[in-house]
Amino acid sequence: MTEPVLEVENLNIRYHTQQADIAAVTDASFTIEEGQYHGLVGESGCGKSTIAKSIIGGLDANGEISAGKIKFRGKEIQDFDDEAHNKEIRWKRIAMIPQASMNSLDPVMRINNQALDLAEVHTDWTEKKTMDRLRELFDIVGLPAERMRDYPHQFSGGMQQRVVIALALLLGPDLIIADEPTTALDVIMQDQIMAHLQEIKEDIDVSLLLITHDISLVFEECDSMAVMHGGQIAESGSIRDVFYDPKHPYSILLQKTFPDIRYPDQELATIDGTPPVLSGEVTECTFADRCPWAEPLCRDQAPPLEPSEGDPTHLNSCIRSHEMDDLAAEETRHAEVTDDIN
Ligand SMILES: Nc1ncnc2c1ncn2[C@@H]1O[C@H](COP(=O)(O)OP(=O)(O)O)[C@@H](O)[C@H]1O
Ligand SMILES: [Mg+2]
Question: Per the structure, how many domains does the chain have?
């Protein structure tokens, strides 16, 4: 097997604020294999963007990686400073498609010049090489090459998105991070972007970290996924494992909050309670307050991410995971009985 593109190991990230330290990420681990699309899913505030920023070396000034490792192709990059990131990693090896990415284009610069700028900062490519590459990528994302010298405003919103994807791919990165690329877009635009990301997968050897709050999007687009809650990874593994055989209560409940094409008539659930406040040290399962199956033991320590039923590629951080199949089935039976009575 080839080396994974990205390995996040026991990552802890804190934000220092005047009031308190925020434990934004606690002991997070996941792996993205070569050419795989990996989803990172969880509700707003659970720490997804913090992880993305730490990978690309762009944590906010008050943020700090307090423990753990980020390995890119086996090499530890968690301690890289801005300069080292720019030289070795950013754009060239890992590129980011930011949220509301259409707005990330420089409005007063032609696209070809934006590409030349990128190549100048991060590579020693000739102008011709950059332009040849941009032409190829315009073709891949379905934009006419004659438009390479246009300004961003000359493109429609959907085309601007494709330009952003082409620029992200320009320097041939191994990994693209897309942080909520479709949030705040309409369904048609969302579908278009996802279709492009799938086309790219066929044409180019690149991995993707797709960050979203929408578990159904991850299920449709990705090969593997991690579910996050309150700064902790609740569960990670292949889509088959995490989506079809979830072992963590949050993964089980999260699925029921999104429409499932397999059960179109199923009522959508909501998850009770509010996201946890993450100040200070995290010393318990951050889902315990909202979990229907929590026990006193769940508050004794931050639960470690461990193999589910001995499978080292399917990890979960629930100390009751071995009982979860039975507990969830019982809950479903109970709900059906209640439905029949009503
Ligand atoms: N610069 C910052 N200073 C203090 N707290 C922050 C900062 N950035 C994010 N946070 C907090 O860290 C937690 C995780 O945020 P974030 O990674 O943006 O979550 P997500 O992307 O999943 O919505 C949240 O509680 C958020 O309020
Ligand atoms: Mg975010």
Answer: 1
HSE at residue 194, side-chain half, CA atoms within 13 A, is 22
Which atom of ligand 1 is found nearest the CA of 231? 14
First to last CA, the chain: 54
Residues whose CB is less than 8 angstroms from the CB of residue 213 and which lie 6 or more positions away in sequence, other chains included: 41, 42, 43, 44, 180, 183
Residue bearing the CA closest to ligand 1, atom 14: 47
Ligand nearest, relative to CA of residue 47: 1
pLDDT confidence tier of residue 110, bands split at 50, 70 and 90: very high
Ligand 2 mean position, distance from CA 120 (Å): 30
Nearest CA to ligand 1 atom 16: 47
Q: Whose CA is nearest to atom 11 of ligand 1?
A: 24
Per DSSP bridges, beta strands 232-238 and 306-308 are: unpaired
For residue 270, what pLDDT is reported? Answer: 76
The pLDDT, as a whole number, for residue 192 is: 81
Tell me the whole-structure pTM to 2 decimals.
Answer: 0.91
Nearest CA to ligand 1 atom 12: 24
Residues lining ion ligand 2 (Cβ < 5 A) are: 49
pLDDT, position 172? 94
Does ligand 1 have an atom closer than 6 angstroms to the CB of 20?
Answer: no
Q: Would you say residue 108 lies in a domain?
A: no
Structural domain contains residue 33: yes
Whether the pLDDT of residue 141 is over 90: the answer is: no
pLDDT tens, 310-332? 899 999 999 999 999 998 888 77
Q: How far apart are CA 7 and CA 70, in angstroms?
A: 6
Is 211 inside a domain boundary? yes
253 within domain boundaries: yes
